[in-house]
Structure formats: structure tokens, C-alpha cells
Design brief:
alpha+beta, GTP Cyclohydrolase I, domain 2, two-stranded antiparallel ribbon, 3 helices
């Protein structure tokens, strides 16, 4: 790993970012939400040069939806954050899973070519030993009762103006 350190590799992974707010989904049936962010930017932790990408977030809500203004503030915080492309997709995925506990979610980053190389990174949940249908240790097939929450939402207010 010529010139790259663990510090480079972990850059941005645990940085403080604005909170993702949520609002309650009004539908029990599956539906898909697709959010495209065509002007995503972050900083290469090794070179300090900007990385540009189109991020696409696709998820099936369980009980919560992401509030878009808070998502914009969250995404804009990456503009001054040193983080590798691979870590961007995985960090956004983990933060959205923590805030929403969706039934399914994918985060895809299509990064603008630099030096003749274009990178696309996609991270999905559910993943890992829980297998299909499991996010945060619960089955996505069973919808919890309206009062029961597997994890507290950061905010369950109404959607604000975009």
C-alpha cells in the first residue's frame, strides 16, 4: 500500500455529520423511493483534490422516510470531508440504515473520471450474516405495531420545505 496509511483508509468514516431527520411513512405496502443527488462532492483524503459524483439512494421504507432538507445538509457536509469513494457509499448507507431501518436500501455513487479512471460504488442492505430480509436484527417482512419502534428516530416531524 504505497504511501497510503490506515489513517487515509479510515478518513471520514467516523466524522461528525448533520443528523438525518425522518418522518412517518403513511403506507404499510412496499413502495420504492429513489433520490438522485447529481452534484455530490467530497475530498480525496490522500491528494486533497475534489471528487465529484452522482449519488443515487433507492430504498423501500418500513416505518420512516428521510426528510429531504436534512439529507441535503448531510450530503453537503461531505464537501469538506476527506473520504474515499468506497467509504462514501458505505457511510451514507450505514447512516441511512441507522436513521430509517428501511426494508431494503442501496446507495450508488458514480464518480466522475479522474486520471482516466471512473469509479462506481454500490452498497446495499440488508447484507451480512442476517441474510435477505433482515436489517438491524429484525425481519423486514413483519411490520412493527405503530407504537413499537426497533430504534428511536432522530426526528419524526413533518417534512419541511425543500
Amino acid at each position: 500500500m504505497s504511501g497510503y496509511t490506515e489513517r487515509h483508509a479510515a478518513s471520514g468514516v467516523r466524522a461528525a455529520l448533520p443528523a438525518l431527520e425522518t418522518w412517518p411513512s403513511q403506507y404499510a405496502a412496499d413502495y420504492e423511493v429513489v433520490i438522485t443527488i447529481p452534484e455530490f462532492t467530497s475530498i480525496c483524503p490522500k491528494t486533497g483534490l475534489p471528487d465529484f459524483a452522482t449519488l443515487t439512494i433507492t430504498y423501500v421504507p418500513d416505518r420512516l422516510c428521510v426528510e429531504l432538507k436534512s439529507l441535503k445538509e448531510y450530503v453537503n457536509a461531505f464537501r469538506s470531508l476527506g473520504i474515499f469513494n468506497e467509504n462514501v457509499a458505505n457511510r451514507v448507507l450505514e447512516d441511512l440504515v441507522a436513521a430509517l431501518a428501511p426494508r431494503r436500501i442501496a446507495v450508488r455513487g458514480v464518480f466522475t473520471p479522474r486520471g482516466g479512471i471512473q469509479t462506481t460504488v454500490e452498497a446495499r442492505a440488508p447484507r451480512g450474516p442476517g441474510g435477505p430480509g433482515i436489517i438491524s436484527g429484525r425481519s423486514s417482512a413483519a411490520r412493527p405495531s405503530p407504537g413499537g419502534s426497533p430504534r428511536p428516530a432522530r426526528s419524526a416531524g413533518r417534512r419541511s420545505a425543500r
